[in-house]
Amino acid sequence: MSDRKAFLARKLSDAKTALGPKTSLLIVSKTRPLEDIQMYYELGHRDFGENRVQELAEKAELLKVKCKDIRWHMIGGLQSNKINQLFAIEKLFAIHSVHSQELLDKLMAAERRLAAPVEIYLQYNTSKEEEKSGFETYTELEAAAETALRSNKLVLAGLMTMGTLRTENFEREAGRCFQELQVEKQKLEAELNLKLKTSMGMSQDYQIAVREGSDMVRLGTMMFQ
Questions:
Q1: How confident is the model over 94-123, as a mean pLDDT?
Q2: Contact 84, 110 (CB under 8 A)
């Protein structure tokens, strides 16, 4: 095993130990070299997240032979003019950034282009920061969930959020954001008879997210350095 692969193996082991058995790991591979992604794949990891459709498409094409059962997750802001390109990507597994009813409608209008079902997460703006996208009321969230349930190829998997960036108490605010998402998830589950997951927590606040019951955390920098 090369030194680099041994280093990544330790990173993967440490992350899984920190997350515990109930929280899964999504490795954010944006800007990272193909070699690192392939090494993580060879170490048994399958879920990788990208922020940009173009970069995701290029990596998916180059790795489709060597990483046949990789699962690609789109986690960045999605423009409607990129939907067709995104839906053409082999092994697209999930979209974590469905941030508006308009985007959801456009995704559903194009879903016939999908070769296989794709999971979606509704993005909820728990911090209410203006620079962040996402639904901002439970009413909007519920309406979007009801819409998504009518889809044939898009599978409503859960909700996604990010903690507050501009705050004097980062840990308290992250905890508040993650707790709020769990409350909204439980309301949706009860009212629509669903079982949903939460995608919340990144390198700077994943420990808080795990404490608050996150089903999946999105870790980038700490997995490669």
A1: 97
A2: yes
Any idea which residue has 């390198």 for tokens?
203
Query: Which tokens sit at 103?
Result: 């985007």
Rounded CA gap, 184 and 121, in Å?
Answer: 13
Domain tally, the chain: 1
Q: CA 97, CA 107: separation in Å to the nearest integer? A: 12
Structure token pair of residue 139? 């009413």
Q: Domain range spanning residue 15? A: 3-223
Helix 170-192 to helix 138-148 angle (10° resolution) is: 50
Signed CA dihedral, 217, 177, 151, 188: sign only: positive
CATH code, 43 = 3.20.20.10
For 135, which DSSP code?
A: B
Q: Given a cut of 80, is residue 165 above it in pLDDT?
A: no
Helix ranges, 111-169 (H): 138-148
CA distance 173 to 164: 6
Q: What tens digit of pLDDT does each residue of 41-60 get?
A: 999 999 999 999 999 999 99
Give the predicted TM-score (pTM) of the model: 0.95
And the tokens for 12?
Answer: 């993967």
CA pair distance 153, 52, nearest whole angstrom: 22
- pLDDT on residue 135: 96
Q: Is the pLDDT of residue 119 over 90?
A: yes
Write phi, then psi, for 6 (nearest 5 degrees). -65, -40
pLDDT tens digit sequence for 15-42:
999 999 999 999 999 999 999 999 999 9
